[in-house]
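User: Hey, quick favor. My workstation is busy. Could you predict this chain's structure for me?
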Amino acid sequence: MEKLKVLLLILGGLVVFVWRMVQKMRETARREQQERPSVRRAPLPGSSFDELLKQMQQQNQRGNPSVPAPTTPAGRRLPQEAAAPKARTLEQPARKAQSQERRATNTSLEKTVAPARRNTGMDHPAADNPLRRPRPTAPAPVARRVITDRLRTPTDLREAFILSEILKRKFE
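Assistant: No problem, here it is.
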């Protein structure tokens, strides 16, 4: 019996709560109706395109109604804005843009070699600096001579470097 009383008390509180919410909703709707009067709008024209076209043509013939000057909420006219002065800019569009990149030049990577000088005819070395003659060695193999001759010029040296990069193993 006591459980039934508690259940009825909770149910009664819930009914009162819902009733008060409904009353508040009605009161709020009534206040909004008083504050915002309903605006009556003209009924929408028929859905036919021809009817809409005729209506627009009639409005164009009558001319657009003059729009009253805008006013503040107090009823005073808003000040009209004078023509604004032309904006001042520091840009110089007439100036042609120049590239900052350097131009490619066709210059040779070979070093310039000084011209060979003629022998002075003084084959006798000074007493304190005896002439060093190359030691006689075994003749170099033909392949070695060809390679050393080719590596004396920078272009061949460049080719050798490129070949070494191509033929070199990926991981050494």
